[in-house]
Description:
The chain is mainly beta. Helix content is 5%, strand content 52%.
Amino acid sequence: MEIPLSADVYCTDGAYGKLVALVSRDDEPRITHLVVAGQSDAEPRRLVPFEHVAAADTSKVQLDVTRDHMVTMNPASQMTDIYEKMPEPVLDPTMLRSWEHVDHPQIQHAEEDLIPPGTVMIDEKTDVSARGGAVGKLSALLVQQATGQIEGVVVHESLLHGGKSVTFPANAIDRMNGPTVLLTMHKDEITA
C-alpha cells in the first residue's frame, strides 16, 4: 500500500486529522508508527502504532480505532522549556533603585520528539539522495500492510526527471536517518 506523507487520517467514526510523519526502525526499513496531527492545533500529535492502519491509498489513511481511542495514544512530542541565565547587566552605580537589576532566566521553548529508541522520524521534508547528489523530496512510502516493511520510496519533484515522481524499490535504499534517505545507486545510474 502507498502511504503519502501528507495524507488525511480517518478513524472508524470519522475524520481525525493529518499524517505528518512516519517512524521507521533505524536498523531495517520497517514502519513502526505514524505521527498524526489532530484537526485542532491544541491537540498534541499522536504516535499511532502501525498495526492500527487498516488501509491506505494515495490521499488517505484509514485506522481501525475510534477518535476517542486516539486521544489515549501517546503524544509524539512535548514542549520543553530551556532555561538560560541572562548575562549580568552593567549597572550604573548612580542608580539607587533596587529593581534595576532582576535576575530572570531567559526561557526558550523547544519541541522534543518522543519516538521510541532505535527509530527515526521521516516526513515530507526528508531529502532523498543518491551517491553523487540529491534526487528530490520524499513524498510517499510503499509499505507492506501486514508487517510495515518498506517496499519502496516515492520521490516527488525529482531533480533528475524533470519534476515528475520516481519510485525506487526497497533494495535501492542504503539507509534512512530521518532528514535523508540515502540510495545505494549513483546519481548517474538514475538518469540513465
